[in-house]
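User: Show me a protein chain along with its predicted structure.
Assistant: Here is one chain, sequence first, then structure tokens.
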Amino acid sequence: MIKPLTAAISGILLAYAVGAPAQDAPASGAAQTDATTRKDDKAKEAVNLQQVIVTGTRSPKAIDEIPGAITVISKEEIQHTLLVTEDATAVLARSVPGYAESSQAMSNTGETLRGRIPLRLFDGVPQGSPLREGTRNGTFTDMGIIGRVEVINGPSASEGIGAAGGIINYISKTPTRDGDEVTLTTRYQTQAHSDSAGWKVGATYSHKQQEFDALLAASYIDRGISYDGNGRRIGLNTSGSLADSETRNLYAKVGFNFGADNEQRLQASVSRFRIEGKGEYVQVLGCRGPTDVPPCAVPRTNTSEKGHIFGAKDAFNDFKQYQLQYTNDKFFGGYLDINAYKADQSMRYLPENTEDKQDPLIAPLGTLYDQSEIVVHKKGLRTSWTRPDIFNITGLELHTGIDFGKDQALQRLALSNRLWVPPMHYKSVAPYAQLSWDIGPVTLSGGYRREDDKLTVNSYTTTYYRNRVFVQGGGLKYKEGLKNLGAIWRVDEQWSTFLSYSEGFTLPNIGIPLRNINTPGQSVDKIRDLNAIVFKNYEGGFNWHGEHGAFGATHYVSKSPFGSSLAVDPHTADFILSRAPVRIEGTELTGEWRFDKDFKITGLYSRIRGKTAFWSADPAGRYGSGGLNKPLGVLDINPDKFAAAATWRFLPNADATLGFTTLLSRHVSGDDTRAYDGAKFSYSEQTKGYTLFDLGVNYDLGKHGKLSLGVENLFNRQYILSWSQLAGYQNYWAGRGRMTSLTYTVTL
């Protein structure tokens, strides 16, 4: 337990702690820090700008002093991915070992990190809500304005609730050159079909002069329909498609340094993002074969055809974000960071006439189409104070602060204006503190974060499908103390090793159990499935850095005594939550080798396995939860992944990168018998792997700009997305076939 600070400081910041696991992952690229753009030229002269991270610490800290698994995706890696695809999460699937395959959709269904849902941030602001996880928080901005992505792998409480699988922080670009600079980007892509063409136009203006800097960006993307490797249109994703959509993005960030030595900074930013379907196609369901209902002789995936459902509205993601940040490099001998934010997020899904959306008071059963829509409002205040050499002890650093947050979410059926999930109000107060001590080649760290949160839900009535039962409103309090410990030993200039223990905290997608209540006499404060999930993560690994290359390995075990996993409802084919113990174990490898200044190769490997129980403990106390005998399937755990890329500068002004990603085939199965009543349970799942290649070529035209060619799925492989191989609601989708893109960028 960490003692309080002096009275002068403790009046501003409370002393408790945060956990943040991290590992130097050399093959994942290096980060150019903007560190909130504070006087980079003087305050961080002694810091290697290629080896710092701010996620979890909120102030620049050298990667080799943080124990755990970190991946930093550089601007160059982001730009290479953008040559191939505009998908916001594709760069994660290619660069982060434990990240699942990209869904290639507006939805990020199945895109887990180390088998659990990650907390996605944009400049530190949460992009989703643990109250109602709608799998839409991976598409929230134009990737062209992102300067780097910092990924903390594994459960962590450092940035608040929701980081079950880790933290993914997208950090916006920052002006680095004095004066004015304008960058124009145009892009054309096609799959060689008349309705597959898409295009993008974007402009970024940056200004930096003395104490003032500004970044303004705007972009527009028009996407055509997608085709698979067989030249067949791909069906629109039920949870939202990128295909047949338009995207508009506006972003502005301004900052001003002031004070005696410019040690203070005030920065404000505004983000406005909207992606919306064009409504030109409707989905035509496929068939998995003779065992499907209705059956078919030859399997066929979902496809799309021209048309529109009468009265339907377009699917969209509409995200607005506002931030105001104040920093002070010399606040009581340390670095103070105060960040206030407000975010409004709306997500609408495609029309469906499923059983759970019917109501005979509106239309005859089986005829009613409706559209789900999730609305989230949040605001918060994040504070941190970092003081090196605290208590006059060389190398001892204190990082402390307090976070405040308010989150409101609801889900409605937009066409009939019915409430599906009632408004949920969540308040969070979380003081924290973290100590780290550099003792020569060893860094020791430890901390504690206290979550003191409250959930409030008003009384409501469920839908017709759930028997129109009245549910008494109420509130739940969540009080958790979250600890972390870590150590890293820099053996010599090339080798280092680490051990860490960390705890994370999240909520179990509360909207799903609330909307599924179908028996009378229920009250919110007595629903066991609303209890929080606490994760415990144990991790160890090593890293090697040489003159020409680097290599890293990590092994982890993640446990949650009352966890959550996804299953498919046999009646609605929709996702349902299963609350039972969960254990996940995995191994990750990363590597890079530079043969010379013109040629390098990178690679990564990930293997994850997980188990849960077939049943949770009976609320009446008749039996406890089952043993860990049910394997976690593809909805939670990604198949083994291997990826590699080779980059060759074949001319002084030209380079090419050829990469591939392989997901291996996998079969998992398990069974169990419950002693209480003799009930038998079993589960079996088999997925087929695939390998995809992509190619990116850049040609620098000097003052006339840069011309780039990108080819996704270079060999036009026909395949089924891994998570779509599991039978579920309208989810039989093929992956995209070959996509060719031509991008022209010029800086003025």
